[in-house]
Amino acid sequence: MNGLLKASWPEPGKTAMITGLSHVSMVVPDLAQAIERLQQVYGITAGEPMTNAQQGVRLAYVELGQSRIELIQPEPSNAALMRFLDKHPQGGLHHVALHVDSMAATRSQLSQHGVMPISAPEAQNVHGESIAFIHPKDFLGALLELEEKPDGQ
What we know:
Blueprint: E1 18-27, H1 31-42, E2 50-52, E3 57-64, E4 67-74, H2 79-87, E5 92-100, H3 103-111, E6 131-134, E7 144-148
Parallel strand pairs: 1-4, 5-7
Antiparallel strand pairs: 1-5, 2-3, 3-4, 6-7
């Protein structure tokens, strides 16, 4: 197997909470410039920019088969992402997003392990899907976003 181990997932007899990788998110200071650079240097094209007013961001996705790169430019109202750009003026990797079948069931399972989302229960992404953010201290040092995708949609 070329030194790689194939994991059995979910473990036999258990229900999968995480059903796949959604995207890797990059915070950028200028969305248009980031889209242009990806096209010119790497030959990859981002979709049309969108706005998520609830989260205070402009964003675009680069579709990569079963996963995506999410480019996020914060609006001034998004204090957390503006602080991120203050610390990382060129932008950088912000979070990893995973799919879940049921946000309610996932929240319940995580709470049994002392893990509580840091986002509001009604949080939604730009597509209207239920999302939750998990603090880096509860996910191996990385910010985690969970996105509800019922039945593996």
